[in-house]
Amino acid sequence: MATTETQINRSIGKVRPHQTQNEGLVFEKSSPGKKAYKLPPLDVPEVDAAALLGDAHRKTAGLLPELSEIEIIRHFTRLSTWNYAIDLGMYPLGSCTMKYNPRVNEFVSRIEGLAEAHPYRPESLAQGVLEIIDLLQRCLIEITGMDSITLQPAAGAHGEFTGILLVRAWHESQGNARRKIIIPDSAHGTNPATAAICGYQVENLKSNAEGGIDLEALARQVDEDTAALMLTNPSTLGVFENEIHKIADILHAKGALLYMDGANMNALVGKVRPGDFGVDVMHLNLHKTFSTPHGGGGPGSGPVACKKFLEPFLPTPVLVQDKNGAKSWNYDRPQSVGRVRAFYGNTGMFIRALAYILANGPDGLRQTTEDAVLNANYIRKNLEDLYELPYKTPSMHEVVFSDKRQAVKGVKTGDIGKRLIDYGFHPYTVSFPLIVHGALMIEPTESESLEELDLFINAMRSIAKEVEETPELVKTAPHSTRVSRLDEVQAARKPILRWRPDGK
Amino acid sequence: MRYLPKSPAEREQMLKAIGAQAIDDLFAIIPAEYRLTRDLDVPRQQAESEIIDYFKSAANKNATDYASFLGAGCYRHYRPVIIDALVQRGEFLTSYTPYQPEITQGTLQAIFEFQTMIAELTGMDVANASMYDGSTGAAEAVLMAMRVTGRQKAVVARTVHPEYREVLHTYLQFRDLPTTDIGYVGETGRVDLEALEAAVTQETAAVLVQSPNFFGVIEDIPAIAEIAHKKGALLIVSIAEAVSLGVVRPPVEADIVSMEAQSFGVALSYGGPFCGVIAAKEQFLRQMPGRLAGQTVDGNGNRGFVLTLSTREQHIRREKATSNICTNQALVALMATIFLTVYGKEGIRELAEHNLAKSAYAAKTLSEQPGVKLLFNGAPRFHEFVLQTQETPAQWSQRLLDEKIVGGIDLGRWYPELKNATLWCATEVVARGTIDHAAKVLAAAPVEA
User: Fold this and answer.
1) pLDDT tens across B128-184, in order?
2) Which of A57, A343, A399 to mutate to test the interface with B (most CBs of B within 10 A)?
3) Which of A340, A401, B170, B355 is least buried, going by the fewest C-beta atoms within 10 A?
4) DSSP-assigned states of every residue in A365-404
5) What angle do CA B288, B290, B296 make, to 5 degrees?
6) Its Gene Ontology biological processes (chain A) (predicted)?
7) Chain A contacts of B11, Cβ < 8 Å?
8) Could you count the other beta carbons within 10 Å of the beta carbon of residue A17?
9) What is the pLDDT of residue B318?
10) Given B64, B111, B166, which is nearest A339 (Cβ)?
């Protein structure tokens, strides 16, 4: 069935077509001799680079573009208008937690004394940044209920890696590294990859009918060869493991540890602390829970918090303080797993996360968590009559539907997601978690107003109706974007990963 | 709470719609004994003005009015102001990984441009959409070489950044993947080729070197490549100072280049976030970790970009995965892309030549002072150099600090055999006056009785 212009326009209230300029690749706009830079006059004698460097001298320059400043501004500004972003509207990407990124965070991270601090400057000249790191560490320890922390890991998955290294180092100190890590089938994809690269065998654990850990199955599976369970809590279904303390007990009875993937910590902050319910080690994603921007895919930051007995194994260096309050880095850590990153971590992200914590305070952090959970439940309530809810367990910060009812009409979760674009929303997370066939994973976060939530709900309801009446309209979406569905098969089969001057 | 867009009445209305009496009903699944019944012990809620005051006061304790000769993997270059103006556009700053290409063409095209520029600069065929940083990138490159070759040993130059080597050790320690360290020649500060030749065997997956190396010296890449390739090992060249590529010949003989792109317009930020990148010869593409943006067409034949070859990624392979890399540094990569566009083909060369000139002047001027000697003078350098002093670094560095100058970093912490040796860096932002001033302070050693 052909999709008519009228059908498309009729159904959409929130959005209007948005004009953006076409913009070639920056290389295609280049012409020799244009400049956007001016270096100051050299105040030392010039050198003959060819003579100084000999064989190591670069004779042919790389094909970088040559443009004026206004062309560069327009180029990247135009590109920016092709992106959806949290600043433009709701971004219900479940498990990715797209919340508001406060601009004061950006402002303070760019204050000269912080942005221009060299990591090897003498510690006496870095007390300000060390104080920031110290305060953030103390806040995160309090929020998680753990005893110690490292801020070094550069991203959540890097935090997982660090956390599992701690687990391994501790077991080795007990005389046996053990062989395996148990991972529920609802886990983030990085979890098994992390365990594998730390030299562990991965054993899957099937979720129970409620989408949680099956205690009996777990008890059968945990043995003296189990190093840890890697548990995402709340799970990727948005479900809190209500028998979490029993899970911890089962593990601890066999000498295994409980690792918590804290990616979904935004459902818990100020309401419950993992350290209080038996977690031994966990990572946080500062960009998910503490509002540091995702920036199109990064940077992230993945601090790892742990219980006291794991502290000796934390990566070097560790921040310490003398009796006068002077702070410094301690490298003398004989049991440490070593370094996981050069320098001390993504300090620019620490500054943003701390600014967010200060802006919230204890009351604001709790309210934030409550609003995030309220929003997810509001969406659940308003869509559960039209979309299949495979797990009826109470939702925390995100809700996972399936496309079961729409699939009957030949419409898949991916199609519904693409159609959401026409309504002015970013799609939710499509087809994850893997344990829900055709999953629609929706996480509104606390940043959405009631008005925006209602618009989203209306869009989802309208799409459900379209699926019944004009399924082709949904299956061929999006209709409003500057490019239609892209040929991903061709991209993978014949990869073109860079521009070439001859166009090949 | 100023970030939360709901009124108390709206919250009530929503609770009612859900059929809950109170917000805590929604948390009822959490066992009562674990629910927090007190406020978190974190600082109270603060006004925006208070937040700014707090960070400004912290920044002041960092003594910004000091000149600096620090480098060692983290370099001060001028950052054109349009970088921050552009990356702070909300559509870049507040978007996510471009999993939905129809509404993320901006990020995808910028990544494609980044990949092209990195490939051009490094002399490699392909580059990825960035790694966490140079240190983890180097470790991932070694793991990549092990996958490509099916071999399990690595040979690593001691002139690779010591912290990069520590990270590599951390990555390999529980996987039974041994490494051999290769020393340097005292005269040149370059990799000891004889020792390298002896260490590389049929079991070596990769030879990892850095160029310019940790001493600022440019390695003889063609010679190193020949040794590695003769035994079927891959050569990985780590580049900590990306600006060097404006004037230093790219390591085209390498199989994999692992680079830190911080120098391309990224603030020091006390060591991060930075921007690693892995570039490689085309035949190794499918073993390359991290994300890639690829060009394709849409249903109407228009050019467009998508994330591609994601079958290599963790979320598909799960326990078979060979890397757990997930997040990249897209926004930082965008900074680098804008930086490289501002300088362009001619500017990057001119910038690199300024760095070369500053460092040549600094090395000459400082080493002419009594009791100061320039080490590793037998090989070409970029903008870092090693000085050996009669005085201990602690002695003269305090005199420099008194004059608000941070001198070179003590190499003794990593190279105990290099007594009183310090690593200095002079980029284009170091003024001649600062160099002359530092020289005077070095010369003013107290006369021994």
Assistant:
1) 999 999 999 999 999 999 999 999 999 999 999 999 999 999 999 888 889 999 999
2) A343
3) B170
4) HHHHHHHHHHHHHHHHHHHTTTSB-S--SPPSS-EEEE-H
5) 90
6) glycine decarboxylation via glycine cleavage system
7) 371, 374
8) 6
9) 53
10) B166
Share above pLDDT 90 across residues of chain B, in percent, rounded to a whole number: 92
Rounded to an integer, what distance in angstroms lies between the CA atom of residue A1 and that of residue A16?
24
- Residues of chain A with Cβ-Cβ distance to B90 below 8 Å are 85-88
pLDDT of residue B311: 59
CA-based R_g, chain B, Å? 25
CA B107 to chain A, closest CA, distance in angstroms equals 6
Which residues on chain B are in Cβ contact (under 8 Å) with A351?
55
| pTM of the complete model | 0.97
Whose tokens are 């918090």? That residue is: A305
pLDDT over 80 at B402, yes or no: yes
Rg, chain A, Cα only: 26
At residue A402, φ and ψ (nearest 5 deg) are: -130, 165
Task: Measure in Å the smallest separation between the Cα of A465 and chain B Cα atoms.
Answer: 22
* Share of chain A residues as helix, strand and coil, in percent rounded to the nearest 5: 40, 10, 50
pLDDT digits (tens, 9 = 90+) for A165-181: 999 999 999 999 899 99
Q: What 3-state class would DSSP assign to A42?
A: coil
Query: What is the full DSSP assignment across A195-262?
Result: HHHTTPEEEEE-B-TTSSB-HHHHHHH--TTEEEEEEESS-TTS---TTHHHHHHHHHHTT-EEEEEE
Using an 8 Å CB-CB cutoff, list chain B residues near A241.
none
- For residue B333, is pLDDT > 80? yes
For residue A492, what pLDDT is reported?
93
Contacts of B401 in chain A (CB under 8 A): 122, 125
Torsion of CA A112, A113, A119, A121, to 10 degrees: 130
Residue B446 predicted with pLDDT over 70: yes
Q: Tokens 């419409």: give the residue.
A: A411
Note whether B318 contacts A57, CB cutoff 8 Å.
no
Rounded to 5°, angle at Cα A154 from A200 and A186:
50
Q: Which of B320, B324, B346 sits opposite A190 (nearest CB)?
A: B324
Question: What is the residue-averaged pLDDT of chain A?
Answer: 94
Which of B72, B296, B356 has the CB atom closest to A490's CB atom?
Answer: B296
Confidence of residue B306 (pLDDT cuts 50, 70, 90): very high
